[in-house]
Amino acid sequence: MDMLTKLEELVLIAVMKLKDRAYGITIYQYVVQKTGNKVAVSSVYFPLERLVRKGYLESFKGDPTPKRGGMRKKYYALTQEGVNVLQANRELNRAIWNDVDRAATRGAKG
Question: I need a surface site. Which of 19, 37, 75, 87 has the fewest CB within 10 A?
Answer without folding.
Answer: 37
